[in-house]
Amino acid sequence: MSILTADRAVFREALPHGGRLIGLDVGTKTIGLALCDAGWSIASPAHTVSRGKFTKDKVALAAFMEQQLVKGVVIGLPLNLDGSESPRSQASRAFARNIADLGLPILLWDERWSTQAVTRTLLEADASRARRGELVDKLAASYILQGAIDGLMAGF
């Protein structure tokens, strides 16, 4: 049975020996993917998946996670600035529930500033609009995952 939680301690307990994590920035048109090492030290952008039929997306995601030996999933939870839920929050929660049967622990992680931070970094790097479009989702997933692993390692 899979664990679906926003509590990092619960998620951490589900993975007592660490293991590779995948970070997901779930959007309406794309899903940004990032991976971290088994020791949870650094997150790296992987790629961006164009969304289609959910069943097909789930099969592809499951295959990628199996290939990468993923032990847990971190999904960005887009909250409003005041911390309240938004329609996008509900969509991310639904996505998490729909992949829970893959059997991996799932952590919902506050991603309020991820896209803005990544976009700002890309603008400072003078990336073109087209290049920003190519990179923003997987970089946001990496930003989300890095925040989560930093949070998971705090106090351990």
From TrEMBL:
Annotated InterPro entries: RNaseH-like_sf, YqgF, YqgF/RNaseH-like_dom, YqgF/RNaseH-like_dom_sf
Gene Ontology terms, MF aspect: hydrolase activity, acting on ester bonds; nuclease activity
Q: What is this protein called?
A: Putative pre-16S rRNA nuclease
User: Which keywords does this Swiss-Prot/TrEMBL entry list?
Assistant: Cytoplasm, Hydrolase, Nuclease, Ribosome biogenesis
Q: What class of enzyme is it?
A: hydrolase
Record's keyword annotation contains Nuclease: yes
For this chain, the family text in UniProt reads: Belongs to the YqgF HJR family.
